[in-house]
Amino acid sequence: MIPRAALARNGQRALQWQMRSNNWRCLATAASGSFSYEIGDAGGVKVASRDLPGPTTHLAVVAKAGTRYQPLPGFSEGLEKFSFKNTWKRSALRITRETELLGGEYSSYHSRENLVVGAKFLRDDLPYFAELIGEVISQTKYTAHELHEEVEPNMNFSRKELLGNPLEFAMNSAHGVAFHRGLGNSLHPSSSTPMTKYLNENRLQQYSRVAYAKSNFAVVANGADHQELSKWINEFFTELDQSPPQDFPSTGTESTKYYGGEERIAHDSGNTMVIAFPGSGSATGNSYKPESQVLAALLGGQSNIKWTPGFSLLSKATAAYPQAHTATAHHTYSDAGLLTISMYGNADQIRQASQEVVKAIKSVAAGNVGREEIKKAVAAAKFKALESGQNMNTGIELTGAGLVQGGKAFQIDELGKSIDTVTEDQVKTVAKSLLDGRATVSTVGDLFILPFAEEIGLNV
Hints:
Layout: H1 4-32, E1 38-42, E2 45-50, E3 56-63, H2 75-82, H3 92-101, E4 105-110, E5 115-122, H4 126-139, H5 144-163, H6 166-179, H7 195-198, H8 201-211, E6 217-222, H9 226-236, E7 261-266, E8 272-278, H10 290-299, H11 313-317, E9 324-332, E10 337-345, H12 347-365, H13 371-390, H14 392-406, H15 412-420, H16 424-436, E11 440-445
Parallel strand pairs: 2-6, 7-11
Antiparallel strand pairs: 1-2, 3-5, 3-6, 4-5, 8-10, 8-11, 9-10
Helix pairs in contact: 2-5, 4-9, 10-13, 10-16, 12-16, 13-15
């Protein structure tokens, strides 16, 4: 008879082996899955899809109609707010009720370059939502009463939300100082913008023909078969112009130019200081510089691990100023980028922390950062880029924008490989170039205490 202790030991070993095998199988499955998009053309419309396993689908139209391309203030947001209102076939109430009955969700938003109109739903309901989105972009009624009673009040709420958030206000200001027009256009019209002078229902309807011309948008889907998606696009996206009408002015198509400078805005709801430098364009364009993303990860500031201050350069440099919250971000656009370092909180501590931020950048430019730090920054930048591309919302917008701007879909596999090739010398070189050029500094809050750019050693 086999002793009970031996049976117990053998059972534990078998269980451990089984768990280990299952883990290996799971890891292999995850690693072998591809997040690449299949691209094509359906009736003159650019189409990209990932047939991810699962019972749901995310479908969206990504139009080159963000604030960079709007001919007049408020047009991008006006189109966004008119999405899923009354069309020539269905009322807004019917659209809402039918979407609820199918358990779906619809949404729209705009960014500096793109206008995204989309829906999430059960996979079998692709025909209905392909028809609905095609109807929304081609047959929306742009009526005066909806503009004045629903669209404009919602635009005012967005404007007030921006004005009440010093951090977003400063970030918006930094884009304006850095790029002037185009990418520098405000995401929301300011309180002093004469909306009645620019915005009316007839002009919005004219602009919708520009924004939703077939050459100006792409249809992107996650969780849909490419052939089936192309079939429904061919059927429901027919009532659209192939190219934008020539009688409507096009703006924002010129190459982006970085200027730099300084802007100071008094605000009594908080203190924020944003320091920005030129960054990298999108990986689908010709101005992509992965070393800018690595530098952003190297500087850091905001901890990724709970209950710890973090070990990035800015986390350590500003550790003595806990009331000055510091974070580095990289904003990527089709032909340009903006590397931003934001500080918000106590005005006195921001004043002191800002000096340490500039010293940290100078230490990178001087080559005083160890190889191990660069290695960690490369891994962090790669993770952030891949996570962003894997995210359904971000991946859809990046892919659609890439197709419209340059005919190339955003492929996260290629992005990870390019970041892996960044060297220590490249990071040092890009940091030095930022200090040699003009910085962008936007300060919002108590201007009596918050410093000027020259006081912390920056050229503007």
